[in-house]
Design a protein that fits this description.
single chain; Beta Polymerase, domain 2; 2 domains
Length: about 270
C-alpha cells in the first residue's frame, strides 16, 4: 500500500532532523493510525507513529526531540502524533503503564500517557515500518481480552461523557455538537470501537462507516453517510445545512452504538 506523499515527506523530514540533532536515537519508526490503515486524509488526518529507541531518552535526548517537534510544528498540518518506546517495551505493551515521551500536535511531553491497547494492536497487525524490522519479525504485545475491556471502558469514560457534555444546546459543548468536526469525530469514533468489540480487529474511520452501513438499521445510514462525506472532504451535505437535525441524529446514533456495544460484551 503506497503512502500518501504528505506522510512520506513529513516523516523523512522528521527523521532527518532527529538524526542530525541526536544521531542513532531513533532505531525504529512505525506508522499506525490512519496512515497505516489506508485512510490518511490530508485535510483531516495527523500522522500517528510509534518510535523505538534503545533506552528511555535521557534529558539531552528529550531536549533534542522537543526541539525537532517544535521546529516541525511551525509548518502546516499534518502533525506527527506519537509515542516513544524502547525495544524492551514491545513485548510488555499494555501491561506496562509507565508514562512515556509523547508528541501531540507538535508538542513533546516527557511523561505522556502510555500507548493504549488500540495502538499496540494496530502496530502489531498493521504497523508500517519506515525504520526497523517488520512488525511480524518482532514480539509485540497483544491481548484480545484487555483490548475488549479497554474498548468498553473508553465508550463510557470518553464517549458517553462527551455526549453528556454536549447535551445542553446552550453551552460550549452544545455549540461544538453542531460542528462538522463533531459529526465526523463522534460517528466514526463510537463505530470503530463497536467494530473492535464485534470482530476483535481494528478499522479506520472510513472503514467504520462502511461497517456501520452493513451492521445497523437503515434509519441510521443518513448520519453515517454524512460522517463519511465529512471524513472524505466531499461537499454536498445530506442535511441541507440543517445542523440541528444533524445534531439530533448524531446524538441518537452515538447512544445507540454505545448501548449496542455493551450488549455485545454481555453475550
Amino acid at each position: 500500500m503506497p503512502l500518501h506523499s504528505m506522510v512520506t515527506e513529513a516523516v523523512l523530514g522528521y527523521l532527518e532532523a532527529v538524526d542530525e540533532r541526536a544521531p542513532g536515537l531513533i532505531e525504529g519508526f512505525y506508522l499506525e493510525g490512519s496512515a497505516a490503515l489506508g485512510d490518511f486524509q490530508p485535510h483531516a488526518s495527523d500522522i500517528d507513529f510509534v518510535a523505538v529507541t534503545a533506552a528511555r531518552p535521557d534529558t539531552a535526548a528529550l531536549a533534542a526531540l522537543a526541539e525537532v517537534h517544535d521546529r516541525l510544528r511551525d509548518r502546516r498540518r499534518p502533525y506527527l502524533d506519537g509515542v516513544y518506546v524502547t525495544w524492551d517495551d514491545l513485548p510488555r505493551g499494555g501491561t506496562d503503564e509507565r508514562r512515556r515521551p509523547r508528541s501531540h500536535e507538535g508538542r513533546l511531553t516527557a511523561d505522556g500517557s502510555p500507548p493504549n491497547p488500540i495502538t499496540w494492536h494496530t502496530l502489531a497487525r498493521y504497523g508500517v515500518p519506515l525504520r526497523g524490522p517488520q512488525p511480524a519479525e518482532l514480539e509485540i504485545w497483544t491481548d484480545p481480552e484487555l483490548l475488549a475491556r479497554w474498548t468498553t471502558g473508553n465508550l463510557d469514560s470518553y464517549w458517553r461523557r462527551r455526549l453528556d457534555r454536549t447535551g445542553r444546546l446552550l453551552s460550549r459543548g452544545g455549540v461544538v455538537s453542531l460542528s462538522d468536526f463533531e459529526a465526523a469525530w463522534t460517528v466514526t469514533g463510537v463505530t470503530r470501537l463497536h467494530y473492535t468489540l464485534a470482530t476483535g480487529n481494528i478499522t479506520s474511520k472510513q472503514g467504520a462507516c462502511h461497517y456501520a452501513m452493513g451492521t445497523f438499521a437503515t434509519e441510521w445510514h443518513r448520519i453515517v453517510r454524512e460522517a463519511l462525506r465529512l471524513r472524505l472532504g466531499n461537499s454536498g451535505s445530506l442535511y441541507h445545512n440543517n445542523r440541528f437535525a444533524r445534531r439530533n441524529d448524531l446524538r441518537a446514533y452515538a447512544a445507540m452504538v454505545i448501548e449496542s456495544a455493551h450488549d455485545l460484551v454481555k453475550r
